[in-house]
Amino acid sequence: MLHAEHLTKRYGRRPALTDCDLTIPAGRLIGLVGPNGAGKSTLLQLACGLIAPTSGTLRVLGSRPASTPAHLARVGFVAQDTPVYASFTVADHLRMGARLNPSWDQALAERRIAQVGLHPGQRAGRLSGGQRAQLALTVAAAKRPELLILDEPAAALDPLARNGFLGNLREFVAELGASAVLSSHLLDDVERVCDHLVVLSGSRVQVAGDVPDLLAAHHRILAPRDELDRLPTGVEVIRAERADRHVRVLVRAAGGLPPIPWPVEPVRLEELVLGYLTRASESSAAGAAPSAGEVRR
């Protein structure tokens, strides 16, 4: 669905993305997570063709982003502020969608509008934040794209509205048979609906993969402080926390963890993400940004 090689984007001297290699398979609902300023919005805008890379390559659905009108029709985008036209009614938005998109599904749009309680005569400027998000999602999905891209569309919503939006998103993706990328700094949202994860921090991809595979490859161990160097070769230390005379360590062993003499526990998705974000933050503060494949002993 998306393939990037050495993808880099700078704004002046400030790097937003640096030398990113990333491959995302089709048929996934991808969670893109990271702190503010990590490069999430930049990656999504590159994928939509709204901006161009400084260097490197990016292909979306097999082509350069927004290379042709036909390619644009295959991608639906909901920006961070869930933009709608304040003076347009809900029905105006659907008529606009039908005029602009050759594969527009009016029946789907009308059904979804009714399901979320929007009246066709309501003006968008009078809708709540949750209602505007639902309208923007409906317009993006009713063009029947192969890929839905959503840039933190639920960040400003209250818990009830966010719950409804995420439920509709999952239904849309299943109904369309599409892939979707959901950028969010709310890990609970990602854990609820996504089956593939990309962690961005410090303008770099820290880790990416299907969620079950990532959880299976990561472990928490409790080792004596002075024996941590006995970890088997190929076991990557993501984060280490000192606790009395022991060290609590988050490790990655992609090929399976070899036998070790210390307690081993599974990890939760939140712990996995925070481990990579903490490592990236500490490495950045020390003047070195690690890549996803760096192996430590």
UniProtKB/TrEMBL annotation:
Residues 2-227 form the ABC transporter domain. It holds the Pfam family ABC_tran. InterPro entries: AAA+_ATPase, ABC_transporter-like_ATP-bd, ABC_Transporter_VariousFunc, P-loop_NTPase. It comes from the Bacteria. Signal peptide: none annotated. Keywords: ATP-binding, Nucleotide-binding, Transport. One of its GO terms (molecular function) is ATP binding. This is ABC transporter ATP-binding protein.
